[in-house]
Design goal:
Elements: E1 10-11, E2 15-18, H1 25-34, H2 36-42, H3 52-68, E3 72-78, E4 87-95, E5 100-107, H4 116-131, E6 136-142, H5 146-154, E7 158-169, E8 172-182, H6 183-195
Parallel strand pairs: 5-6
Antiparallel strand pairs: 1-2, 2-3, 3-4, 4-5, 6-8, 7-8
Helix pairs in contact: 1-3
Bound molecules: coenzyme A (COA).
Coenzyme A (COA) binds at residues 38-39, 42-43, 105-107, 112-118, 141, 145-148, 150-151.
Length: 203
């Protein structure tokens, strides 16, 4: 389960998902800056001085994690604009024995509500279940983050419960809801992912 995956680009009808390169640093910084209020509301890492050194550190760590099979971070780009960074999506194993993993994502604020997170997550779930051989994937969503809850619902995740004061964001401990999707649920729903236009391929 922890072996490295191929670094080939994965695609959806509208998106390219690929591992990070050093040359992505500037476009990553630009996207973080363009999204800072929304990102820093829900995630612990964005900060007002986020800059090139932060982006380069993230990319270096991301490349090492990919090689070691610890995590797979994908840069999101559209097919018709390879330069603008649309956001990040990651999948990582959390337990080898339980064949479990987790997904996390963000989308730049001026491209939200276009279905990008849902489409990217559908493709990353395919990576999780088909390539990583996972049995269960979870998503943790801060309470009040209606957009991310909606992404979980659209993809058929099941809400399992509440994780109290789980992540420290801007000096406040945020409760999170825990959502999960099982291998058999993904396989049952895959045809509808294709019908919705989130995945290419057979229904
Ligand atoms: C959460 C996030 C990834 C969603 O990205 P996105 O590309 O806009 O997501 P999608 O367009 O695929 O779906 C968003 C859905 O939420 C809905 N939505 C948006 N804002 C909402 C809100 N405040 N309350 C409820 N629903 C909301 C949209 O209408 C859409 O649903 P619909 O397709 O049924 O109309 C993006 O807003 C983001 O990056 N936020 C900041 C970081 C973050 O929260 N990351 C996730 C941590 S778990």
């Amino acid at each position: 389960m922890s072996r490295a995956l191929p670094t080939a680009m994965r695609t959806t009808p509208r998106l390219a998902l690929r591992p990070f390169h050093r040359r992505d640093a500037d476009s990553l910084v630009e996207a973080v800056w363009a999204s800072l209020p929304e990102l820093s509301r829900w995630l612990p890492w964005p900060h007002p001085r986020y800059g090139r050194s932060d982006a380069l550190r993230f990319i270096r760590d991301s490349q090492a994690a990919w090689e070691e099979g610890r995590a797979h971070d994908f840069a999101l780009r559209s097919h018709d604009d390879g330069l603008t960074h649309l956001g990040n999506i990651s999948v990582w194993p959390t337990s080898r024995r339980e064949q479990a993993g987790e997904v996390g994502y963000w989308v730049r604020t001026d491209r939200t509500r276009l279905g990008i997170a849902t489409e990217a997550a559908a493709r990353v779930l395919q990576v999780a279940f088909d390539e990583m051989g996972l049995h269960r994937v979870v998503l943790r969503v801060a309470v009040g983050n209606g957009a991310s809850e909606r992404v979980a619902e659209k993809l058929g995740f099941v809400r399992e419960g509440l994780l109290r004061k789980e992540v420290l964001v801007g000096g406040t401990w945020l409760d999170h809801s825990l959502w999960s999707l099982l291998d058999e649920e993904f396989r049952r729903q895959r045809p509808s992912y294709v019908q919705q236009g989130w995945l290419v391929g057979r229904t």
